[in-house]
Structures are given as structure tokens and as C-alpha cells.
Amino acid sequence: MVKAIFITVRSGSTRLPEKCFLKIKDKSTIEHLITRVKKSKYAKKIILCTTHLEADKKLCEIAERNGINFYQGAIEDKLMRWKNAAEKFGVEFFVTADGDDLFCEPELIDLGFKQYEASNPDFIEGKDLICGSFTYAIKTEALNEVCRIKNTEDTEMMWVYFTQTGKFKTQILEDVPEIFRRPEIRMTLDYEDDFKFFKTIIEHFYKIEKKDFSLRDIMDFLNENPDIIKINQYLQERFLENQKKKTKLILK
């Protein structure tokens, strides 16, 4: 059975239209993410999970062009999209990488894979980390059970089905280096100033001819230039409040 990274992305967005196609230097934002997660040492497959809408076929073309797999599924129901992708590709366990999280860190992704091998959890989440550096790691068997018991197609805020039902073995990501424990730093793409934040960092590393930069490199740069953190930091409270409003546990 396969261990995979699922890149979850769709082209429809209201706050920052078609943000996955916005260009920074020579790549769209989604291509920057694909390039980054390819550095994982433990993922056997990388699968871009998008919707069956016509507009999202362009994302599938990008996936093909970048040598990764893709799956087109449910428009709103992210959990069913993952479930069906896991069935199609024979995935036993996967780490998620949101299309908004351009700097999702392969070092942390691989910690998730190693933790699964060591203790066989159903669900791993990151706590007190840089926002956008790691999201979740999920056992497909547990995902299948969640899809059986949920009673909604609106599963954008899906973690509560694993953490609040008492049915699953959940864990916090372990052995995280202290350099990544900076929850006040926002690295996710929702608004124009988020794009400005990513653009500033990526253009810096291209300028110094270091295109293959890690999150550790980014943190060194931000520690030397703390004003860059402030570009979009003010948006984090709004982001978390929006998530809180949308988070609901709806069971059969």
C-alpha cells in the first residue's frame, strides 16, 4: 500500500481569484508547492486532488506537466475527494498539503510519515507551528469511517471528525525542530498581502540564485528581516475567526 502526499486545490476562490495560477517569477503558486513537496523522502506518490469542474482541468494539466498524479472529484466534499483518490491510487496513509500553503515543509511531512510507521495513528495534526508549514496526516481506513458517519458535504474544516468523535487514535506531530514552532508567522495564501509576502521571499531567493530553498532557509531570512513577517501577519486573526465560524461537526 502507498504512502502519499495529497495536494488539495481548486481554482475557485473569492478573496483572491484564481490564486493557484498567480505567477511568482517563472512559476504559478501551485507549481511552487509541487516543487517543494517533491523533496519528501518518504512519499511514494504525490497526488493533486481537485474537483471535476471544467475550470479545474487546468490544474490537472499542471500536475501532468510536473510529473505528479491527479484526481478530480467532489466539488465541496474534500473528504470524499480524498477517499476516492486514495481508492484509485491504493493509498494507505497520506499527508495533506493545502494548495494555499506554498512553503509546506517536506521535513515536517516526512516526520508525519515516520510517526505513522512508529505508532500507527489514525490522524496527526500540527500544533503551534508556522501556519502553512504542516496540516494533517491521515490513515485511509480512518478516513473511510469518517465518510461513513458524517452527514454533510461541507467538509472544508474536516479535522473535528477525527479529533472530536472519540473514535480515532489522534496524535500531535512529534520531534518538531524549534525553528518551526512559530505560530505567529502566517504562510498561507488567502489575501493580496499573503501573495505579497510569498512574492517577497521567493524573489529574494531567486535573486541570490538559491531556488532550492528550504523552510529553514526562509526562517533564517525572516529572522534577519522581521518586517517581512508583518506584511500579512495582521490577517491571521481574521483567518482563524473565519475557520472557527465554518467548523461544524455534523454526524448521521
Secondary-structure blueprint:
Elements: E1 2-8, E2 23-24, E3 27-28, H1 29-37, E4 45-51, H2 57-65, E5 69-73, H3 78-89, E6 91-98, H4 106-119, E7 123-125, E8 136-139, H5 140-149, H6 160-163, E9 170-172, H7 192-207, H8 215-224, H9 230-233, H10 236-246
Parallel strand pairs: 1-4, 1-6, 4-5, 7-9
Antiparallel strand pairs: 2-3, 6-8, 7-8
Helix pairs in contact: 3-5
Summarize the structure.
By secondary structure, the protein is an alpha/beta fold. The chain is 39% helix and 16% strand. The strands form 2 sheets. A 7-stranded mixed β-sheet has the order 5-4-1-6-8-7-9, with helices on both faces.
Keyphrases for this structure?
252 residues, alpha/beta, Spore Coat Polysaccharide Biosynthesis Protein SpsA, Chain A, two-stranded antiparallel sheet, 10 helices, 39% helix, globular
Word description of this protein:
With 252 residues, this protein is an alpha/beta fold. The chain has a single domain (2-246), classed as Spore Coat Polysaccharide Biosynthesis Protein SpsA, Chain A, CATH 3.90.550.10. 39% of the residues lie in helices and 16% in strands. It has ten helices and nine strands. The protein has helices at residues 29-37, 57-65, 78-89, 106-119, 140-149, 160-163, 192-207, 215-224, 230-233, 236-246, and strands at 2-8, 23-24, 27-28, 45-51, 69-73, 91-98, 123-125, 136-139, 170-172. The strands form two sheets. It has a seven-stranded mixed beta sheet with strand order 5-4-1-6-8-7-9, sandwiched between helices. The protein has a two-stranded antiparallel sheet with strand order 2-3. The model has no long low-confidence stretch (mean pLDDT 97).
